[in-house]
Amino acid sequence: MQVIRTVAEFRRVRPTISGPVGLVPTMGYLHEGHLSLVRRARAENDVCAAWVFVNPAQFGPHEDFERYPRAEQRDRALLEGEGVDLLFAPSSDEVYPPGFDTAVEVGAVAQRLEGAARPGHFRGVATVVAKFFGIMQPQRAYLGQKDAQQVAVIRRMVADLNLPVEIVVCPTVREADGLALSSRNVYLTPEQRAAAPALYRALGWARERWTEGQRDARVLRALVQDVLDHESLAQVDYVSVADVGTLEELDRLNGPALVSLAVRFGSTRLIDNIVLGG
Ligand code: PAF
Could you tell me if 125 and 86 are in contact, meaning their C-beta atoms sit under 8 angstroms apart? Predict the structure, then answer.
């Protein structure tokens, strides 16, 4: 695996690569969810590339940028073990040199849900993704369904800016008890970890009612909220039943819908979602 730290070096290497490049964007501290993206990217492309960059621009001033878990040696070994060909792992100064003053601002789809709870978050995501797509020039990029709104925002940006990258979305990988894998799960205390499967349980109830024929979005929202309210350690940020593409809240489900939620356990904020009818 070739590890590249600078934009100039990547630009030197990129023209020597032939065939489709599948890219897995990450902030490191890799888990099985990331590795499932790598395996798919490897299987579907001649060359598999990844980036590891904890992007300061997508963290709010009171968020966890400083304490975000990092494990560079371990990440490198995991990526190498999965057969990744190219790893781009630049420093913050390389990505945001003095004078850097451009941002990519996606519209309505980036303003709802996570966008409302974390102002500026998707501006930071879209900017770094646009920048790294430009540097790395992948044919395909592999993203996890767990960050469903991130997928919707990046898809909007790719379409609007005519970026020649196909976005491939891969299923959420879960622990045996249903908790979606996330680098932030490491923050949970044992008690919070024991309570956290409530997220997927609540989503499962929504799926069950939907399967039985319930199409009233208010009823499904209330049901999910009710399951979460029974978990005393969980503080609900939002429960949403929305259009999968635009993330506009629905009254009734007449097509595919994204049921998503954000829940705090102490200072740790977890998100999860399922698609109904997709
Ligand atoms: O999902 C993530 O890990 C990040 O938001 C991403 C896409 C790598 C951009 O920093």
Answer: no
Residue nearest to atom 9 of ligand 1 (CA): 125
* Residue 85: HSE in the Cβ half-sphere, 13 Å Cα cutoff: 21
* pLDDT tens digits, one per residue of 149-180: 999 999 999 999 999 999 999 999 999 999 99
Q: Please tell me the distance from the alpha carbon of residue 22 to that of residue 26, in angstroms, as a whole number.
A: 13
Name every protein residue with a CB atom under 6 angstroms from any ligand 1 atom: 25-27, 55, 58, 125, 128-129, 147, 150
Query: pTM (2 decimals)?
Result: 0.97
Q: Whose CA is nearest to atom 1 of ligand 1?
A: 26
Give catalytic status of residue 230 as yes or no: no
Domain 2-170: give its CATH code: 3.40.50.620
Q: 129 C-alpha to center of ligand 1: Å?
A: 8
Conformational region of residue 137, where left means phi above 0, alpha means psi within -120 to 50, and beta covers everything else: left
Q: Where in the chain is the domain with CATH 3.30.1300.10?
A: 183-276
Ligand 1 atom closest to the CA of 25, numbered from 1: 8
- pLDDT for 161: 98
Tell me: the pLDDT tens digits for 189-204? Answer: 999 999 999 999 999 9
CA distance 138 to 213: 42
> What are the residue ranges of CATH 3.40.50.620 in the chain?
2-170
User: 183-276: which CATH number, 1.10.1660.10, 3.90.1150.10, 3.30.1300.10, 3.30.920.30?
Assistant: 3.30.1300.10
Write the residue with the smallest CA distance to atom 7 of ligand 1: 25
